[in-house]
Each structure stands twice: as structure tokens, then as C-alpha cells.
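A further point concerns the way the authors explain their paired sequence and structure data. Showing the layout once, in full, would remove most of the difficulty. For illustration, here is how one protein appears when written out as sequence plus C-alpha cells:
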Amino acid sequence: MTGQVLKITHQVGGVGPGLRSLFVLDGCAMSCRRCPYPQGSAREMTAEECAYTLFPYETTLRRGGGVTLAGGAVARELPFALEFFTLLKERGYHTALFTDGNYPEGEEDGVERLLQKTDTVLVDVKALTEEGYQREGGSLARVLAFLGFAEAAGVDIWLRMVIVPGENDREEAILRLKRMTEHLTRLEKIELVPAEDCTDETIERLQNLVI
């Protein structure tokens, strides 16, 4: 089984617990204006080939770090992602999935199987309403379902949302996010990330609402 790997970065932080190796898959069904991983020139790799790149970093990765698989295509390449994470778990790595939480219709079973091999999910929240998600090409209902699958699988949950002035930088937006997710017992953190024109003061003020 192969995946379209856009980027591999080792010894990176902020994409799960500790220092990690980050694998970004190419392609996505959404059209987000602030995509952290825009499409590019990818290479086809097997799960074993991806795992082979970890050897020089094994000690660090197993000492509180791990491996993160990211990109909007993760849920669209479920067979590859499942094979890769199964291999990683057999070799003792912590696994994290960095995703927008959307997945193809009818792939619920595949998503649940992948989450059985996942230790942490980082969900990039794109909007706070169904209408907002549809403008980006996704579905809020499906994201909430994904979070429910992660909760049921006992996966640790991190949420991330980019704060854009004039769109979601008001207290009401952050409180809505908090209400939407307050039932999640596996929720460990909510991280608010500033867009280019968002001030540190705004982030600090809003972050205090979710602590």
C-alpha cells in the first residue's frame, strides 16, 4: 500500500506530544483559505519506506515524542494510513493524526479502525457552523462525528483553530467552540493560533476563555 507523501520533517514540535517526525500527505477535498499544507509535488511511498526514515531519530521519538501523520488527505488514504500506523505501533511509536476531521461518506468503519491505532488526534477546526464548513468544502457534522469516534476509541484530543480578525476573534465564537466540545472527556487542549493580522493580545485574551 502506498501514500502520496508531500513532505517529511523530523525533530519538529507542536504537532503532538514531544519532538516528532511529521509526514504530510498530499491532496484534500476541502479548499481552505489558510491551509497549513497546500498541495504540491508529492512522491509515492510505502508505509515501510516511511518508517525507514525514522531510524536516525528513534531514540528521540521514543523518548516522549512520536510520529504525526498530517494533511487533509489522511482520511482519504485510510488503507495507507492504517498500514503505516499499525507498523508504527508494532515498533513502539506514539502516533498522532493531524486532520481537519472530515472523511469521505461511508468510511466510518475505516476511520474507527485508524483511530484504534492512534494515540492523539489534532483537529484543525475550520469553522463553527455547518454553513461555514460548507464554504470551505467540508461538514461540521462530520467533524463532530469524528471527534465522537476519537472519544469512543480513547484517543487524546487536541483542538486547533486559527483566529482571524473580523471572523472568529470575538468571545462568543470561542465560547461556542467550548460548548461544542465540553462533553469530550478526552479533550486535552484547545490551541488558538493567530492569523497573520491577529495580535498576541487577542490570542491571550481568547485563550484565557478555554483554559
